[in-house]
Amino acid sequence: MARILDKAAVQSLSSFNPAKSFTIRRSPQKSGIASIPIRIPVNSQPNRVDLVASVGVRGVKGIGQIRFRVFRGGTEIFNTQQGIESSGSEQNYVVTFQAEDFNVKAGTHAYTVTAENLAANTRVDVVGPITFSGLAVKVRPLNLKKKRLTKHS
């Protein structure tokens, strides 16, 4: 059984809205998408932080390759990549992903989602919605002792 330690969520754009869009920067620059704080109390080991992000994007030019990253403080803990097509094909996407962070030390930690476009001569805009949430839980240690199996006739 797990015990909830902390939770946080942000919804900076609640719907698809091209009027509030911004362009994802070309790598190695990064566009900040969302941040949340998660507090881990003392004596909360082992623990796990479950993170879920959804980002609405629109392909504007070419086929962009968007790398989404999740950071705890300045340390990258997760990344994923998504191709985004533009005009003449699919243009609007909601990219959703989940990351896990294990055995986080006590303290308050800033989790941040960023995006960067890896493909030259393409353009992808964030158009919403944007949501990012985290749930920290204390978990039971795994019992790694093997039980002897007995054969019953």
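That was protein one. Protein two is written in the same sequence-then-structure order:
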Amino acid sequence: MSRKQVILGAYLGGVNHHTAWWHPEAGSQIDFSSFEHTARTAERGRFDFFFLAEGLALRERDGRVFDQDIVGRPDTLPVLASLAAVTTHLGLAGTINATFNEPYELARQLASLDHLSGGRAAWNVVTSFDAFTGQNFRRGGFLDRSQRYERAAEMIDAVRTLWDSWDADDLAADAAAGRFLARPDAGAFDVKGNQFAIRGRFTVPRSPQGRPVILQAGVSPEGRDFAASRSDAIFSPYGSLPEAAEFYRDVKARAVTFGRSPDDIKILPSASFVLGDTEAEAQELYREVRNQQVTGKTALILLEQIWNRDLSGYDPEGPLPDVDPLPDAPPFIQGRALVQQDRVGTVARWREIAEAKKLNLRELVLDQFERGPFVGTPSQVAEKIDSFVQADGADGVIIGSHLVPTGLDEFVDRVVPLLQERGSLRSEYTGTTLRDNLGLPPLPANPGKAVS
């Protein structure tokens, strides 16, 4: 049986508590030079794609902007379009919200990026329902939570309809005139649903990979079904076995129920790494990095989102707060996605963990707020990643570093060659599009018209 090829994505910092902005070698999170360096490094390591998260509002704590956040973030699409000019093979994946955008505009932007990059565009579909973010975009501030997946599903279907409104042969060359002529029905579309009713002609011909790649994240049954039915890849929250393998099997099985092949969707968790010349050195460096990432103040802020109340009076080196969370109070932390929806249950579980492991407040945060690090010598990290993928814990990993923008260099220089030696990572790019390099099935060049 041939070895699975490890899919690699590169993730650049952004709005999170993992980035070591205090490090003396840290660079800007918003200068183009940082994006360019990370993308060029990823391409040198034969990564599949470069990934950008998105923050649509400056996060707040008790009505005031975080003093630990990055203030500002350039819009995703211009950054990716600029990176298309300084890379040749690397996929370019951007996070764009389905709640606060319209199909026609978004379809044009992504199809244009796909053309500019030669078939390397990807869209990470996210949804939002909170009024805090929504007030930047829509009157009334939000879309009802029950409708967010409905709108996202209709958004993807509408955008794909527009992309498919051009066939590959809709542009006929007129050699005598030195131009291209579109067929009379090229670009015609008519989309009707609960969320959208649009009709017209799409202006961008079919792109090099047919459609940009669709990425999505979802843990709930509804989120897993959404990804299994429509996405080309799903971000997994699980970085270790056996939970990762169960998630892998479940999403692949759901894809089959929607008439797809298990290979039609890729499973990709995010991960960090810390390398050392010895295992002991790597573990010591990892502890140092984590202790600097999660200061006492950071620990309190992370717990405040769950408790939904001011915890600034508690000692980070003391026990967990003895007060109960306030699930029904107005959000104390605004602009950060709440992963643990059951605040009361989460607090109860964390108290049990803290008691069992003898952890203080900050130690509990260190224990619970981690994204699956690979720690060890380069050969150990290469073996861990490869074994995880070969055991169907995932199809690959999205690698980020605590140090922006140069942290990825060490992974490319020291781990990538070992993965290549194992036969689990390409030495050269073999495909011309992101879809090719991810091993996704090709799309028909003539998918059929949206309007007959």
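The chain has two domains: 7-277+371-438, 295-368. Keep this in mind for the problem set.
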